[in-house]
């Protein structure tokens, strides 16, 4: 009987600990995430969808804007998973590479911009807690992670371009490197 009682106490203790953590988040990180979401939606409403479309189309013309700047702006303004939706404005040839860069960026920016990927915030908070116990500043780590992420995500997207070229060449598939938005608007 003692074994069952100890198990039940430990099981309930797990949920009590989770509840305490949740309440601490309600007074610290949740208000920050909420205000960042409000800012993000305000920026999108201010710019408008047509400007966002033109921005994505213009970004597709340059490798740096395509895999560094566009994923950053998409993640910051739209968050995960909506940031992937900007890829629809890119030519078919660049969509796999954009996805590769965007998928990575939604992780590497979480320390500075927690609204981008709130579903994985617990990972960053676990790392940050260990850094705090060492007496170090978590923002230094977050900024470094963001900067290294920008560079590595760009490299990942660019390397995926080479992979896409190889797959197209070996399979005989030809993907378009241009976007025709007039045809897209007629079908929408």
UniProtKB/TrEMBL annotation:
The keyword rRNA processing does not apply. The keyword Repeat does not apply. Pfam families: EII-GUT (PF03608). The chain crosses the membrane at residues 22-47, 68-90, 145-168. Keywords: Membrane, Transmembrane, Transmembrane helix. This is PTS glucitol/sorbitol transporter subunit IIC. It comes from Lactiplantibacillus dongliensis.
